[in-house]
Design a protein that fits this description.
Layout (H helix, E strand, L loop, with lengths): L1 H18 L1 H7 L5 E9 L2 E9 L13 H16 L3 E2 L6 E11 L5 E10 L7 E4 L1 H4 L5 E8 L3 E7 L5 E3 L1
Parallel strand pairs: 1-7
Antiparallel strand pairs: 1-2, 2-5, 3-6, 4-5, 6-9, 7-8
């Protein structure tokens, strides 16, 4: 049941984002911007980040030089670490699994997913997104948040306004 809710919640968030065709056509690959879909239920928090690669590395095509390969590997390691998602300490959330997928091309894109488990979900009131500190080319994140208790909402995140309330 839990997995079904999370899949449905993320699906609703993605559908809502894509329902506005003008938004989809203009924001699908816009440098400086990313989307983040978050679903929280019980002790689980799942997040999917989608963004142009240029927000995280200096190129968007398949890495060719050793310097590009090293830059990509450094970014991938930082993504898989997931420590840029900061939860209330009392919630005791830990990253269970993370994956990073890059779609290289003329305009490369990144999709990263993160699964967190929190020991004290009753203390889970939200999260901070500190990607802006690590990746200065990222200027704005459009976030969709779905929780079983409070439903769906949206937030625009920036370096100065980087907190999501559940």
């Amino acid at each position: 049941m839990r997995k079904l809710f999370l899949i449905a919640a993320i699906g609703v968030a993605l559908f809502a984002r894509d329902a506005d065709k003008d938004h989809k056509n203009h924001a699908a690959h816009e440098h400086g911007k990313a989307t983040l879909n978050v679903a929280a239920e019980d002790s689980n928090v799942n997040a999917i980040l989608e963004s142009p690669l240029a927000n995280f590395i200096s190129f968007e095509s398949e890495p060719k030089t050793q310097a590009e390969k090293d830059e990509f590997a450094k970014m991938e390691a930082a993504m898989k670490n997931g420590d840029f998602f900061v939860f209330p300490a009392a919630a005791k959330c830990k990253l269970g699994e993370a994956s990073v997928n890059a779609d290289f091309g003329d305009h490369g894109d990144l999709e990263a997913s993160f699964d967190f488990v929190c020991e004290n979900p009753d203390k889970l009131s939200g999260m901070k997104v500190e990607l802006f500190k690590i990746f200065p080319n990222l200027g704005e994140i459009e976030a969709s948040i779905v929780t079983k208790a409070k439903g769906q909402k949206a937030a625009k995140l920036t370096a100065k306004k980087n907190e999501i309330k559940f």
